[in-house]
């Protein structure tokens, strides 16, 4: 069975590393971005199935990145993991195309919550993707690098 390919995006290295450690046994974490600009670059080259992103990030915030992802990685689904609990942020995330929204620190089972969200995504929305040759180079650059 194909493991879901996940790209992480958060400006805090500890959060990226924690997510990588807890998700890697079940999912394939293909990269980790420290800002929205890097997130967009990695998303375009890696074409992950799912992106788990914060909203507040340098260069390009997560909401703007989600809007741009519709063109550069149209089959990728975005789940926000953020500290913003305000309804206006949830609405903005949904408007930007997010399929999930989790508030940091509000769940005792983060992996279970993410697993549930990822598992509920329709399989037909995940189009198979074979990265171009340059994408393969980017993959080796991004994989397993929690600080990137």
Task: Please explain how this structure is put together.
This protein is an alpha/beta fold and 148 residues long. It has one domain (5-126, 133-142): Response regulator (Rossmann fold, 3-Layer(aba) Sandwich), CATH 3.40.50.2300. The chain is 43% helix and 17% strand. The protein has six helices and five strands; from the N terminus they run E-H-E-H-E-H-E-H-E-H-H. The protein has helices at residues 13-23, 36-46, 62-72, 87-96, 110-119, 133-142; strands spanning 5-9, 28-33, 50-53, 77-82, 100-103. The protein has a five-stranded parallel beta sheet with strand order 2-1-3-4-5, sandwiched between helices. It is globular, with a radius of gyration of 14 Å. It starts with a strand and ends in a 6-residue tail after the last helix.
Short description:
By secondary structure, this protein is α/β, with parallel strands linked by helices. It is built from 6 helices and 5 strands. The termini are far apart.
């Amino acid at each position: 069975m194909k493991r879901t390919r996940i790209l992480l995006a958060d400006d805090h290295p500890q959060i990226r590393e924690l997510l990588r450690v807890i998700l890697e046994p079940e999912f394939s974490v293909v990269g980790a971005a420290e800002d929205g600009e890097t997130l967009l670059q990695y998303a375009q080259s890696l074409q992950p199935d799912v992106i788990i992103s914060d909203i507040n990030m340098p260069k390009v915030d997560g909401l703007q990145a989600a809007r741009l992802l519709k063109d550069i990685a149209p089959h990728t689904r975005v789940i926000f993991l953020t500290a913003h609990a305000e309804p206006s942020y949830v609405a903005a995330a949904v408007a930007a195309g997010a399929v999930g929204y989790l508030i940091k620190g509000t769940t005792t089972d983060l992996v279970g919550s993410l697993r549930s969200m990822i598992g509920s995504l329709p399989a037909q929305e995940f189009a198979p993707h074979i990265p171009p040759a340059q994408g393969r180079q980017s993959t080796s650059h991004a994989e397993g690098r929690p600080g990137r």
